[in-house]
Write a structure and sequence with these properties.
One of its GO terms (molecular function) is GTP binding. This protein is of the alpha/beta class. The protein has a single domain, classed as Rossmann fold (3-Layer(aba) Sandwich), CATH 3.40.50.300. It is about 40% helix and about 20% strand.
């Protein structure tokens, strides 16, 4: 029997850590929206991870649900509103399909979930990360925020992927890494989304910093050019 989570498409959930309504600053510097695509092979527990983050509850089995949910949390003094697209596992393939390409283009950040008990779900990740980066490359050089998540840590006696392997792969692919148990606690799910929010913030600030540095260099060049002209 499959237990279906009673969540509605585009449902909104309020985190305990969300800034109190009316107290949040209207400044855009204190708020951020993030579209997140949660992907993973069938049975790795990505929906369980998503629902744990949304509701604090654990539900072990799901049907082939595909939904976009909204949920906010405070991250380092900033209110982050996540729009989370939970993609059914049977859509995760080695080659990008047209529907998957649309999903990737929609998203700002990515959470790729594998099961520490299923090595095949882990081996799928390098190709998936490359497909994401290739799809995003046309939009500019901005770094793509991606988190790799090893789920089912509570089933260590069935472990097929070591924590060190997961961490090394994330380092090699320039991704964040977490190993969690969606079944055991909310903290792990919160840490995953908090880590993604931090990466998203850094990625969005990087072009601004680059532009600032280029502006400084341009101004300095103009000053030196004027000095050379004055000395002639």
């Amino acid at each position: 029997m499959v237990l279906r989570c009673p969540l509605r498409r585009s449902a909104s959930f309020t985190s305990e850590s969300r800034l109190l309504q009316g107290e949040a600053s209207s400044s855009s510097d204190l708020t951020m929206e993030a579209k997140v695509l949660v992907m993973g092979a069938a049975g790795v527990g990505k929906s369980a991870l998503t629902v744990r983050f949304l509701t604090g509850r654990f539900i072990g089995e799901y049907g082939d649900l595909e939904s976009v949910y909204s949920h906010s949390m405070a991250v380092e003094g900033r209110e982050v509103l996540f729009h989370i697209w939970d993609v059914p596992g049977d859509q995760v393939q080695e080659h990008r399909s047209p529907s998957e390409e649309k999903q990737v283009q929609w998203a700002d950040g990515f959470i790729l979930v594998y099961s520490i008990c299923d090595r095949a779900s882990f081996l799928l990740l390098p190709a998936k990360v490359q497909l994401i980066k290739d799809a995003k490359e046309a939009l500019g050089p901005k770094k793509v925020p991606i988190i790799l998540v090893g789920n089912k840590r509570d089933l260590g006696h069935h472990r097929a992927v070591s924590r060190e392997e997961g961490r090394l792969l994330a380092l090699t692919l320039d991704c964040g890494f977490h190993e969690v148990s969606a079944a055991e606690a909310l903290d792990g799910a919160q840490a995953v989304f908090r880590g993604l929010a931090q990466r998203l913030c850094r990625a969005r600030l990087a072009p601004k910093r680059g532009a600032g540095i280029r502006g400084i260099v341009k101004s300095m060049s103009a000053v030196f050019a004027r000095k050379r002209t004055d000395s002639l």
